[in-house]
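queue> holo job accepted (manganese (II) ion)
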Amino acid sequence: DLEEKPQRIKRFHALMMFTKVNKSLNLQNKFQVAMRSLAKHGRFLEDEVLVLHFVSDVGSQELGERMLQELLLDATFLYEVVFHNVDTLTEKLFPIVVAMQKHFSAGSGAYYSDAIFFLSVAMHRIMPAEIKRIVQLDLDLKYRSNIRDLFQEFNHFSPEAVIGIAREMQPVYRHTFWQYRKDNPKSHVGDPPPDGLPGFNSGVMLLNLDAMRRSTLYNQLLEPKRVTQFAEKFHFRGHLGDQDFFTMIGMEHGELFYPLACGWNRQLCTWWRDHGYGDVFQLYYQCDGPVHIFHGNCNSPIPED
Ligand code: UDP
Ligand code: MN
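queue> job finished
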């Protein structure tokens, strides 16, 4: 039988927030470091395509399209670029996440424009059903490994897990959960690894959209009533958007999260070391094993190779 099998193209979806980039040289520099290192280390098979999604405004999109041509010249793999308009996504997102905003946004009101910081939380309802998995990535990253290997981590999810995410590497949630920790001195909430629950960092996230769509528990936790119940129980008041929500529900439902190794999101920010937490800082900051991705959060410089 000489009939040729049609080559089935396999798409790997990655999404980045990409707003106001045209207004910030700082963000443009981060974008360059991220895309050049991603191109340099990325390896895919012949029938595979890396799809890069950017959530963007018109000005940033124009700049991004121009810059990407040059930044991805070294890529040895096939790729596609898709821009999504931030206002269109915000419109869809706002009704789903408005209840979260008062607990996990800066300021007190539920500002329309803040809804986009919760995109990952409702990504399964925003992206078309053909997209089964997507990774969401910050721009202030430097890749040292093949990004294809990150997608392989989806295969290690337990049956209940919907999101893969690395732990937060500063004692920020030790601070946020201060009241709850005082009232519940035996709890591990906010304690450092390996036995504690230090919370999550949203710089690198594996979103199993199919699992998020199927999970009754996860979708219940998105309901405004449940969000409020949780926030009250934990006395939670944050300003870090999706990462606050995931951290809070993770305290009670760790089974929803696949613990991504710290080397896949090696955060470099040390702000909390110098703001009252110097004594415990290293317990949180320490990350053994290979660094696959550096995350220069809070504008931290990333080491040269
Ligand atoms: N971002 C953006 N425009 C901005 C600020 C942030 O598109 O004006 C995106 C960008 O992808 C960035 C992410 O939001 O990586 C999170 O912000 P940042 O990395 O600065 O936060 P940090 O990791 O320092 O907490
Ligand atoms: Mn970041």
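queue> The radius of gyration is 19 Å.
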